[in-house]
Design goal:
This protein is of the alpha+beta class. It has 33 helices and 33 strands. The protein is globular.
């Protein structure tokens, strides 16, 4: 019988009364257990009776650098197990509060539980900082009137201002033109437009009070000695730095009601209830937040009950204009660790522009002088110190802040993480280029085991050694004072976060591995033959079938200007394109690297995932030797590639790396810098950009305020009809669905050197299902209208028979006979009307994909005879055939020939005509790690066609031809021919992060 979809596809839920109640009494261990046997097994495994580190060693590391648990870089010679010294501080300052620690189940089904920090536990208080009972109502506040649109007169005025300035980004001249036309159209009726001109519109926006954090500036000038009578020009220049008070910016984030359910108020440790494995996800789930809370309480026990707010910074130079003379800006961004990763990635104003740093320039004669080089570095650090100055006091003494849930809490800040690429990390950590900012490994052998850097170690060696010794032995620039020296508990070496974009995607993949492959081919085959092979690789890449969200490369990968999205897109298809042209060890190298990237990109990382990350890294280090053995490269001492060694430790510290990636700040560049620059007149553009950003922030804050008061429900038009007591109805024909709208939008996409297929939608709805597929609203009137016509259109004459057996399986689900063995006279006959659809929407929970704030994603599955006027497109899908099996053992691959729906005995049957694929082998290919499938055939070489209910479809699948097993020249093969021209395919597990998780 056809496969039956299990809507849950999850393990049995735990009993609700099995709440972990037994804590481990070892100092620093925060594990809880449901029964005594679990606690006993844990203590025997992780807390044997070994002697602990002497307290003096832990408190005074001297020249050895910092030593903490779980470091995969340092060489641990201690006989202690990994968790034996977890968080140990000698005397436990939290003994009296540990009894109050509680375990709480999170989410549906009691599958995950958390231990929350018992000290900094975010207790509610009044506006004077006096703690309130847990069940106390919010303190009374002056409520705004529901129809108070101030400073706007009504909703129409606000919506128009927001549309023109935020969405249309219309210039002042065009705004005036639009309003003039509008005014002319109202002359006869005696009406007036909502705004008189652009100045009127801007004035109303500027008078908005919510979200108003004013911009300030200060100047910095060189104050050192001038060593000769002809000083360099930069010594007399004055440098402007523009900034906003970060303390006020944080207040706005905390008070944003839209973030209320997306904030983590208390540090926590999260565990899988089925096996007690630790899980890391958002920033507050990491060890840094917990240990920082311990440290704050240790320094000042009176901070108990406060809320820890980790401050996350990010900076990176960006170029806004090249053709008219290079124009660069140096934006500084701020976020907080309480905001969850999905919110920070979803560009919902959880990352805020707080400053523009100065970029000193001088003549060529002086640009390379040590004095100018040192001045630029110290200017950077001094600027950060001045900008963050307002946070210094509340890092020691908590302040009372209003939150979006209308409660006050006592808040204490801490500098937590800094998002930066490698060049920025070198500047921040005051080290020399080609050294590691995280550990003390020598630049000539970065992958050796080495202790981590720390500010304490750095200060100690600076006191002990001269500058040359610091430079040559430790890679330290000893005459620069880092900005973290001016803030309590701050350590720049600990703050530097992992950077998936620049370290892995642009660095390890594009700059290293792809380049090494080209150099290998030239080294082995010579330049002429290598270029032919590279051309063939390009043709293979260009011939890959389209897929939702997949970047297309019509000319292959041979183009000059690479973007981060280009590198991400190439990662998804490159390994299959090079197979057969390079040795197996090269393919193994790419597989290990890609698996490492996809594992660390997950939204939730478990202890098992960390084991898999370590295994992938180990295999990558082993197989990459093929390039050195071939004489292609001389050393693997590459800082960005070396950074991979630090990921397991940083995941434990900060949670999943996807919440601290520089792709977040790169995306923010577009909205906060590049787009505002395009709307300036280019003369002293920075001031105009600051004003544009300020207006954007005010509009965003006003919208959040109006939404909180329920004033933006519906649309302007629906609200107007409601006021007039009228109702308007949109028929299915005049108002199409989102999915069909996407079809229309795709037709107009311009194809460039690399372009992306429709990426689907990210949804902000909470997870209610794991996956759901629905047909689009609009059916195809020009296609087949009955079963006979459908059989003729598809060229499958047995469609009527297949449909009869499909109906039997749907009406008799308990019949276990093979559908092929059921006599036709037992099957219901159908010869009524049918409807054909070109696409369907698959909505599924994709926790590790770049999705909406709740991890829900919607993609489009296409099955249409003409796509973008190029050719037919018939996508492949994963079909659930065994709900009890894991991964590909419970899924099959099918190609959608058409989506069809019909009614039988009053019941609607949405289904799909599919061509099955058969798996080759019992497991994935050993070289690429991908399963191999081929089109399924029946007797007499007939295609294995079936009709399945769309509820059995999980989501879209992407297949890549096994090029090395075919003697087909891909030169003339277009993407829409790919599935028809080849006879074996890889199930592309690198198509996206969700596919990677389900196709192991």
């Amino acid at each position: 019988m056809p496969p039956v979809r299990d809507p849950g596809r999850s393990r049995p839920t735990q009993r609700a009364d099995c709440v972990p109640q037994l804590p481990c009494d070892e100092p620093g261990c925060n594990r809880w257990f449901r029964n005594l046997s679990g606690l006993t097994q844990h203590k025997r495994t992780y807390h044997p009776s070994f002697s602990r580190y002497p307290e003096g060693f832990r408190n005074n590391p001297g020249l050895l650098g910092s030593v903490e648990h779980e470091d995969h870089v340092a060489d641990r010679s201690s006989p202690l197990p990994d968790h034996a010294s977890d968080g140990y501080q000698g005397e436990d300052l939290l003994d009296r509060e540990r009894e109050a620690m509680s375990a709480k189940f999170i989410g549906p089904g009691s599958k995950v539980y958390r231990n929350y920090h018992p000290g900094l536990n975010a207790r509610k208080c009044d506006d004077r900082g006096q703690f309130l009972p847990d069940d106390a109502p919010p303190p009374p506040r002056a409520e705004k009137v529901p129809n108070d649109w101030n400073p706007y007169r009504n909703r129409l005025e606000f919506e128009l201002a927001d549309f023109l300035f935020t969405h249309a980004e219309m210039s002042a001249k065009k705004i005036d033109m639009l309003l003039e036309i509008w005014a002319a159209s109202l002359l006869e009726s005696g009406g007036q437009p909502l705004f008189m001109n652009h100045a009127d519109l801007y004035g109303v926006i500027d008078s908005t009070r919510v979200g108003n954090v004013r911009w300030e500036n200060f100047t910095i000038q060189y104050a050192g000695e001038e060593r000769n009578n002809d000083p360099a020009p930069w010594m007399s220049d004055v440098y402007d730095v523009w900034f906003r008070d970060p303390r006020e910016v944080i207040h706005n984030i905390l008070a944003n009601s839209g973030f209320t359910d997306e904030l983590d108020y208390v540090p926590y440790h999260e565990y899988d209830a089925s096996n007690d494995q630790r899980r890391w996800q958002d920033f507050m789930s990491g060890d840094w937040a917990w240990e920082q809370a311990d440290r704050i309480l240790g320094d000042d026990p009176t901070t108990g009950g406060a809320t820890l707010v980790p401050v996350i910074l990010g900076s990176d130079k960006t170029t806004v204009s090249v053709a008219t003379g290079q124009t660069d800006y140096y934006p500084l961004y701020l976020s907080i660790g309480n905001v969850r990763n999905t919110v920070r990635r979803a560009h919902r104003n959880a990352v805020v522009l707080i400053g523009f740093l100065a970029m000193p320039k001088t003549t060529r004669e002086h640009a390379s002088t040590p004095a100018f080089w040192r001045f630029k570095r110290q200017l950077f650090h001094s600027s950060l110190t001045r900008i963050l100055h307002s946070l210094c006091r509340p890092m020691k003494v908590p302040e009372t802040v209003l939150f979006g849930d209308n409660y006050y809490r006592r808040v204490i800040y801490a500098l937590a993480a800094y998002i930066a690429d490698y060049e920025e990390q070198v500047l921040l950590s005051c080290i020399i280029r080609n050294w590691c900012p995280k550990c003390l490994a020598h630049r000539d052998n970065l992958d050796e085991n080495a202790l981590r850097r720390s500010q304490e170690h750095c200060d100690t060696v600076i006191e002990e050694f001269e500058l040359r010794k610091l430079w040559e032995t430790y890679g330290i620039v000893g005459d620069i004072v880092p900005f973290t020296n001016d803030f309590p508990r701050a350590d720049i070496h600990q703050m530097l976060s992992p950077d998936i974009l620049h370290q892995l995607i642009k660095g390890g993949f594009k700059d290293h591995l792809v380049d090494w492959v080209e150099r290998y081919l030239v080294h082995i085959h010579g330049k002429s033959e290598a270029e032919k092979i590279l051309d063939d690789i390009d043709r293979r890449i260009a011939a890959v079938a389209p897929f939702t969200g997949l970047r297309r490369f019509p000319q292959g990968r041979h183009f000059k200007q690479w973007t981060g999205d280009d590198s991400k897109g190439l990662m998804k298809v490159y390994i299959a394109a090079i197979e057969g042209h390079v040795p197996k060890d090269v393919v193994h190298t790419f597989r290990a690297f890609l698996e490492f990237c996809y594992l660390v990109r997950r939204n939730v990382i478990t202890e098992q995932t960390l084991t898999e990350i370590d295994d992938a890294l180990s295999r990558f280090h082993r197989f990459r030797e093929v390039f050195q053995n071939a004489g292609v490269i001389e050393t693997f001492s590459l800082p960005r590639q070396h950074a991979m060694k630090h990921y397991p430790y940083l995941i434990r510290q900060f949670g999943a790396p996807n919440g601290l990636c520089s792709s977040i700040t790169e995306s923010k560049h577009v909205k906060a810098v590049k787009r505002p620059y395009r709307h300036t007149n280019r003369f002293k553009a920075l001031g105009q950009m600051i004003l544009i950003n300020q207006r954007l922030d005010k509009l965003t804050a006003a919208r959040a305020d109006f939404q909180q008061r329920g004033m933006l429900n519906g649309t302007c038009l629906s609200k107007a009809f409601e006021v007039l007591g009228m109702y308007i109805h949109f028929s299915d024909e005049s108002f199409d669905s989102d999915c069909h709208g996407q079809d229309a939008a795709d037709e107009g996409d311009e194809q460039t050197a690399s372009y992306e297929e429709d990426a689907g939608d990210t949804l902000d709805d909470p997870m209610a299902i794991n996956a759901h597929v629905s047909l689009t609203r609009k059916y195809q009137r020009a296609r087949a209208k009955n079963v006979g016509a459908l059989a003729a259109e598809l060229g499958v004459p047995e469609i009527p028979t297949i449909l009869c057996r499909f109906l039997h399986s749907q009406l008799h689900p308990t019949d276990t006979r093979n559908p092929e063995d059921i006599p036709l006279y037992e099957c219901p006959f159908f010869d009524g009307k049918i409807r054909i659809y070109n696409s369907a929407c698959s909505t599924f929970f994709a926790p590790s994909d770049l999705s909406g704030t709740h991890g829900m994603r919607r993609e489009y599955i296409r099955s249409c005879p003409m796509w973008r006027n190029e050719g037919p497109r018939y996508d492949c899908v994963f079909v659930v055939t065994d709900p009890q099996a894991d991964s590909m053992r419970g899924l099959d691959i099918a190609r959608i020939l058409c989506f069809v729906s019909f009614k039988y005995q009053g019941t609607l049957f949405p289904c799909a005509v599919v061509h099955w694929f058969d798996r080759i082998g019992d497991g994935p290919d050993t070289a690429t790690g991908m399963w191999i499938v081929r089109p399924s055939r029946r007797t007499h070489n007939l295609r294995n066609i079936a009709i399945i209910h769309i509820d059995t479809i999980y989501r879209a699948a992407h297949l890549i031809p096994v090029y090395s097993s075919h003697n087909i020249d891909p030169r003339g093969i277009k993407p829409h021919h790919s599935y028809d021209m080849f006879h074996s395919f890889y199930v592309n597990k690198y198509a996206d992060h969700h596919t990677f998780e389900i196709t192991f």
